Structure formats: C-alpha cells, structure tokens
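Q: Please design a sequence for this.
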C-alpha cells in the first residue's frame, strides 16, 4: 500500500499515508479497495452508467463495525464520503470522484418476524432481498417497482410503489432504524428515542447518518392480481386513468406510463417499439374482489395488449428488471402534481409520444389514500396533499445519445412547469436540481436544517440532495 491522495469534505485534497490506510484496512472485516486492486474497476460502478467516477478508496462494509470504522476514519481525516446502498440513485450519489465510498452492498441480511409483522433489513438490501424474505410469510410493505433498487435510498427519500395507496409510503412504515451518525456513534432511533433523527430520516434522504438496519411494518399481501395493460396513446387514456385511480379502492396500486411498447409476446409485433400508454396494476386486496377492481382497465382506452394475472407480490416487482440492466445511462426529472388537470394532460401527450427508448418512460405514481392520511409535518416527507409524483425517466445504452435524450427530458419537464409543483420527490430529482431541495421539503425544511445541524454539523454526509447545516 502506498500513500493515497484523497478528496476532502471541503473541496481540497489530502494525502493519507500508507500506515493510516493499512490501519483502516486492519480494522475491517469487509474489503478495502484502492484503485490498483483487481476488484476496484467492478466495485466503482454504480447503476447509472453516466457516473463514471474514480473514488480514491472503496470500502465494502461487512457489518456495523465496518461502518463505524469508516465513518470515524472519514470524519477524523475530513474526507469526502459517499454512502452507497443499492447504488441506484440516478443522481449518482452512491459514488464520488477522488473521495471514499462506503458501500453497504454486502450488508443484506433480512429477518422477518411474522408474529409482530415486522422485518429488519440491513442497509444494503435491495427490494428483491426484502420482498423475497417477506413473501414467504404472505407479508409485504411498500417498496420499489424494480427489485434491484436499494431499500436504503428509496426508504430514506420516502418510497413509492404499488402498495402506497393502501399502506402509505415506505417511510411511513419505518418503525425504527439503526444509524451511525457523523460523530461515529451508533444510535437506534424511533418515535421515542432520538425522535428528531427518526423524523428526519423519513424523507430527508441520506443527510443524517448511515442506516445500517431498517425495521419496517409489514402488511398481509398473500399474492396479488396485476400486470401491465398497453393502450394507444391519446388524451383520453390519461384522463380516464386519473379519474379511475383516484376513485379506486386503496388496495389497487396502478402506475400510469408513457412508454415505447417493448417486444413482449402478448403485444402485436407491429406495436413493438411504438409509442404507447401503459397502466401497471397491482391488486393486493381480497382475491374475490380482483375482477371488479381491475375490470375498468379495459375501458381506459384502445387496448393494444394486456397481461394481467395472479402472481406473488415479489414477482410484480421483478417484471421490469430485465429492461433495466446495470450500466444503462439514465437521466430523470420529477415533480409533484397537486391535481392532474386536463391542460396538464394535453401538455404530456406530445412529448409523452416521443419517449426515446423502450427502457424510458414517464411514470405517474398515485399518492392518495394512505399517503394523504399522514400529516405533512409527521415525517420529513412534506407533500401529503398531492395526487401524483411524476418522473420523466430516460434510460439508454449509447453515450452518443446523451445530448439528444437529456434534451428530450429537459424540454418535456419545461413544458410541464406551468402545471406542476416546483417541488419534486427527492429520489426523482436530477443531480443539478439542488436548488429545488428546500422547496421539495416545504415547511419541513427549517426543521430538517435544525436536525442536520445537530447530527451532522460539519456536513460529512453531503453527497446527496443536501440539506446543509445552519
Ligand atoms: P444509492 O445510490 O445507493 O443511494 C441513494 C442515496 O441514498 C445516496 O445519497 C446514499 O448516500 C443514500 N443511502 C442509500 N442507502 C443508505 C443507507 N443505508 N444509509 C444512509 N444513506 C443511504 N423510487 C421509488 O420511490 N419507487 C420506485 O418504484 C422506484 N423505482 C426505481 C427504479 C429504478 C430502476 C431506479 C434506478 C430508481 C427507482 N426509484 C424508485 C428511485 C429510488 O428511490 C432512488 O434511486 C434511490 O435513491 C435508490 O436507492 P439506492 O440505495 O439504490 O441508491
């Protein structure tokens, strides 16, 4: 091991001598990977291929002790630190140029307690890990709709998915969390212990510490009936979807999307690659009521093809995994929508018909039902009166397409500005949307700054949609 040049928290560089790095290595059970290590090239990759960054050091933590060691080391040497959960953050906050990456991807233990209907999951789990474990007990909680996404970033930012209308956001189901704070302490926070911290991590992202374990409430979800239905695009289909979903029983999760029809066997071949609308439905209520709940899907528009049936909840969250392999290039813009008015729908149809690739789409996540029954100040996630969170999510393979596809997202986002909130779900905001962070927390922002000042006064955890301390 030789001396290492490492980026510092304040934008400079420092030299770590070989002894200091060896000292850190010897305190770990996990792996410490400097750039010359054969495993480094693979380990530095995050899901979004746009972020081709070279950290000075990567630590793949094996447990809480390693997390404590890295946070203390980074704090003592004033190093720039990125914390990686599932590595799916489109904004690229799971890595850093020249700093230290603390990768939790080996901390993926899950323990379900069927008696109390709770699950404890380590900070590096994916939704695939968690859904698989809870599904065996006929239980689930709100999680992401792609199984390779990390529970870490998703839960800390809020967390939306098929069960949100029935069970609330993922963060609404968080019962406690084990957190390593910036001063290198280990705390378990919940409604009674370090309750300010517990409030802040339910929506405030990775600003407040490294969560090594999440304890989440589970719900009875013994199989679902659902799947995608594709339609010819027109204004009516989105209008009808809006009216339908906001009136539907809360056991129905249904996400609308403008897409390019993928080459799926149940879609006519001449539709493959053509612009289409899609509704991906997930009925998690009584099986006997599924048909009534789902039958309006056939009347939302001109149906091109449909594949709706019974499956485990864990399976619907894997449906789109094959479309989204690691390394795709991605660029997203998101907003909250109070009410999806007819003019807004008109503004969507033209750019929504020009989705650039089959991996891309504009998605509408309904946030009514249980999400709206939580008070805006009960958790850091402030937007409890909006009907939808939308995201224009572009994903593509070739670097040569970067400029034109990023332009499509930005132009589309610009066209929607008159109809959407300046605020957006932080997990859907682009890296450069930093100026939208305060408004995205609304009236909760002041309290978040206060909690940040208490738990991370030097802003060690800054590689995120940052809430700087006062
Ligand atoms: P990372 O890049 O590892 O982390 C993202 C941020 O969270 C970073 O700032 C990181 O420091 C912090 N972080 C992660 N884990 C921890 C931890 N344990 N402790 C402290 N900080 C941590 N969102 C939804 O709500 N619903 C969806 O259905 C959904 N689907 C998605 C599908 C895809 C394909 C992708 C790419 C994203 C999706 N998202 C969805 C957005 C998702 O919520 C964010 O990308 C989220 O940040 C991913 O978390 P991660 O742990 O994988 O990411």
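A: Design:
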């Amino acid at each position: 091991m030789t001396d290492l040049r490492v980026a510092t928290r304040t934008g400079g560089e420092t030299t770590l001598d070989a002894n200091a790095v060896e000292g850190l290595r010897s305190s770990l059970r996990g792996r410490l990977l400097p750039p010359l290590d054969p495993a480094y090239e693979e380990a530095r990759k995050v899901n979004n291929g746009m972020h081709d960054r070279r950290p000075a050091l990567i630590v793949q933590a094996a447990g809480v002790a390693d997390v404590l060691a890295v946070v203390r080391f980074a704090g003592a040497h004033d190093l720039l630190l990125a914390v990686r959960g599932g590595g799916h953050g489109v904004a690229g906050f799971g890595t850093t140029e020249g700093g230290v990456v603390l990768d939790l991807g080996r901390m993926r233990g899950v323990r379900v307690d069927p008696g109390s209907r709770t699950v404890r999951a380590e900070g590096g789990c994916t939704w695939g890990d968690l859904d698989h474990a809870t599904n065996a007990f006929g239980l689930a909680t709100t999680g992401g709709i792609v199984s390779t996404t990390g529970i870490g970033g998703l839960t800390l930012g809020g967390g939306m998915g098929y069960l949100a209308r029935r069970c609330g956001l993922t963060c609404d189901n968080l019962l406690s969390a084990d957190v390593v704070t910036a001063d290198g302490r280990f705390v378990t926070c919940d409604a009674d212990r370090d309750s300010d911290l517990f409030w802040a991590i339910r929506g405030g992202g990775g600003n407040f510490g490294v969560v090594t374990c999440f304890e989440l409430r589970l719900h009875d979800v013994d199989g679902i009936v659902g799947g995608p239905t594709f339609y010819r695009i027109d204004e009516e289909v989105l209008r009808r979807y809006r009216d339908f979903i906001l009136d539907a029983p809360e056991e129905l999760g249904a996400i609308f999307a403008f897409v390019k029809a993928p080459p799926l066997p149940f879609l006519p071949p001449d539709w493959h690659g053509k612009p289409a609308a899609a509704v991906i439905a997930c009925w998690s209520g009584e099986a006997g009521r599924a048909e009534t709940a789902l039958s309006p899907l056939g009347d939302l528009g001109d149906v091109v093809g449909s594949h709706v049936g019974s499956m485990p909840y864990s399976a619907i969250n894997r449906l789109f995994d094959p479309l989204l392999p690691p390394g795709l290039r991605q660029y997203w813009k998101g907003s909250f929508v109070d009410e999806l008015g007819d003019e807004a729908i008109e503004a969507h149809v033209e750019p929504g018909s020009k989705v650039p690739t089959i991996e891309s789409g504009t998605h509408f996540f309904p946030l009514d039902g249980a999400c709206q029954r939580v008070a805006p100040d009960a958790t850091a996630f402030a937007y409890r009166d909006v009907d939808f969170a939308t995201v224009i999510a572009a994903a593509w393979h070739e670097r040569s397409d970067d400029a034109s596809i990023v332009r499509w997202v930005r132009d589309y986002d610009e066209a929607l500005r008159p109809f959407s909130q300046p605020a957006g779900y932080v997990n859907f905001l682009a890296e450069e949307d930093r100026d939208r962070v305060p408004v995205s927390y609304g009236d909760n922002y002041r309290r978040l700054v206060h909690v940040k000042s208490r738990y991370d006064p030097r802003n060690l955890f800054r590689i995120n949609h940052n809430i700087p301390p006062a």
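Q: Thanks. Anything notable?
A: The chain has 14 helices and 21 strands. The pocket of flavin-adenine dinucleotide is lined by residues 47, 83-90, 93-94, 104, 123, 144-146, 149-150, 152-154, 156-157, 159-161, 205-206, 210-211, 324, 427, 464 (CB under 6 Å).
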